[in-house]
């Protein structure tokens, strides 16, 4: 059962969650003409009057850029104002996941992005572990990741997630936890809503931005942390067979954070994951505000204003 925060940001103000409703004729509902973000908000373990946001500026920038792909303008400052207000209205005491969403709110029936009304909302949900921190099993999906020439994959466009939904359900219905999608060139792209990393001979490898991936913020953070820790990194195409011979495989994302892959298809992955473990520990310390070197990645929101 989902535990939504009591207040949402809707129509430019905080309203009770039950009142943040849209018409059944809403354009985005029918055509997928929306873009969303995801942001984790963590009560400061050492200060209950403060909420910690991980790389909030990057999340706001990506959503603003996603809005431009829908031919609308949504300022980063507008996004952050809504985030701050919804946190102060709800005063969460447990970790939550915030979902800001820009969408075509028009009630017309023509599939278009010109001469159309848009709106912006935010809601939140209590969220601990999205995937098991002990590891997940993955299958190679029969569905193919879309190409950037057919969908603007640099943004989190809501309509694009039909492929992720099909792949995720296919994986679960066939006995796995998660799906891994190949792109149209047969290279590994990403999971249903996460980026993918492998480790081979001490080198951290991830598909590059030319492999039809979402440019994940956690992905970029993992790469930067690894480089600072002296771990060699490569962004390059990854073949399917590399998954089966890798020393480590793991996923990254705002919801998933850093999650190990314990099995791919019928192949068990090594249980020792020193590279992933070191990165995950460092990332956890950063998000909890315990790493001064990365304090600039943490936005601190005072609940009392």
Structure description:
By secondary structure, the protein is α+β, with helices and mostly antiparallel strands. It has two domains: 7-126, Aminotransferase class 4, branched-chain amino acid transferase, N-terminal domain (D-amino Acid Aminotransferase, Chain A, domain 1), CATH 3.30.470; 136-287, D-amino Acid Aminotransferase, Chain A, domain 2 (Alpha-Beta Barrel). It is built from seven helices and 17 strands. Helix 4 (161-173) links the parallel strand 8 and strand 9. The longest helix is centred in the first third of the chain and has 15 residues, at 76-90. It is globular, with a radius of gyration of 19 Å. The model has no long low-confidence stretch (mean pLDDT 96).
Number of domains: 2
**CATH fold annotation of the largest domain:** D-amino Acid Aminotransferase, Chain A, domain 2
Helix content: 25-40%
Helix count, per DSSP?
7
SSE order in H/E notation?
A: EEHEEEHHEEEHEEEEHEHEEEHE
């Amino acid at each position: 059962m989902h535990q939504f925060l009591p207040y949402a940001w809707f129509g430019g103000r905080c309203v009770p969650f039950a009142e943040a409703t849209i018409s059944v004729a809403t354009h985005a509902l029918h055509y997928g003409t929306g873009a969303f973000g995801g942001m984790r908000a963590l009560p400061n373990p050492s200060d209950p009057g403060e909420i910690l946001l991980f790389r909030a500026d990057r999340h706001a920038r990506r959503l603003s850029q996603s809005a431009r792909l829908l031919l609308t303008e949504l300022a980063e400052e507008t996004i952050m104002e809504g985030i701050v207000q919804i946190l102060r209205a709800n005063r969460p005491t447990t970790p939550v996941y915030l979902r800001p969403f820009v969408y075509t709110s028009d009630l017309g029936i023509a599939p278009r992005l010109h001469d159309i009304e848009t709106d912006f909302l935010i809601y939140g949900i209590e969220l601990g572990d999205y995937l098991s921190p002990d590891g997940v099993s993955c299958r190679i999906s029969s569905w193919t990741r879309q190409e950037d020439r057919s969908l603007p994959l640099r943004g989190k466009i809501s309509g694009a997630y039909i492929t992720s939904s099909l792949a995720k359900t296919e994986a679960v219905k066939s006995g796995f936890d998660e799906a891994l999608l190949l792109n149209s060139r047969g290279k590994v792209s990403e999971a249903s809503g996460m980026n993918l990393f492998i480790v081979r001979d001490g080198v951290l490898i991830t598909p590059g931005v030319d492999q039809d991936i979402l440019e994940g913020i956690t992905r970029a953070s993992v790469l930067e942390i690894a480089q600072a820790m002296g771990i060699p990194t490569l962004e390059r195409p990854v073949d399917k067979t590399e998954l089966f011979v890798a020393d480590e495989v793991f996923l990254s994302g705002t919801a998933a954070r850093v999650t190990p892959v314990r099995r791919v298809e019928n192949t068990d992955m090594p249980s020792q994951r020193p590279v992933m473990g070191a990165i995950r520990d460092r990332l956890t310390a950063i998000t909890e505000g315990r790493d001064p070197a990365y304090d600039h990645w943490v936005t601190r929101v005072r609940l009392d204003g």
